[in-house]
């Protein structure tokens, strides 16, 4: 996929493709739900075609949106939730700031110090995240180990405060529920790669919904539609 021709050789118009991708990533719909919705609008689009569109454009939307994200605060809430892939539970590490804005996510087959460290490294490298002043986590023993290793390596400043208090995770747990609601209609994922690409789309649409993108406020549905179109060079 190139910046100039993201929809080259596509049978359907770009605005139809983006409409299906955006609706799937924003609302709790299955691919078959979207197939019926599009049929009501006079367009016959097979659910497998919509699936391929999501797999192709969800991660691309994430990539194109990153440069336009607003800066987050320096107070992090970190937690992990469960995602079913091929009938097995995997771990989705997620973090929000003190305002509930999404920092980043990391999908992992394991729940240990190494996975937590990979998540922290990815989050620290994001252009929209500020260096944390405090990191709030639950009682998972992997977090102190990961943070200690990053401090020892000089990646995190030694003065960063780690708080292990259960109730401080309420904000991130509420955010988990929204994400789990989106994954429920699909009844789980069939591969790790499929899950990762789809989750990228869920997360970036959640950021857009929260008003994390410059020039688009929370609740501005028209602005959200226009933003996705502009990111892909399509007239809304």
UniProtKB/TrEMBL annotation:
Q: Name one GO biological process term.
A: transposition
Q: Which domain of life is it from?
A: Bacteria
Pfam families annotated for this entry?
DDE_Tnp_IS240
**In its keyword annotation, does this UniProt entry include DNA-binding?**
yes
**Is Signal a UniProt keyword of this protein?**
no
Could you list this entry's UniProt keywords, alphabetically sorted. DNA recombination, DNA-binding, Transposition
- Give this protein's Gene Ontology molecular function annotations: DNA binding
Ranges of residues in domain DDE: 74-212
Which InterPro entries does this entry report, sorted A to Z? DDE_dom, IS_Transposase, Transpos_IS6
Q: Which NCBIfam families match?
A: transpos_IS6
Protein name in the entry: IS6 family transposase
Organism whose genome encodes this protein: Reticulibacter mediterranei
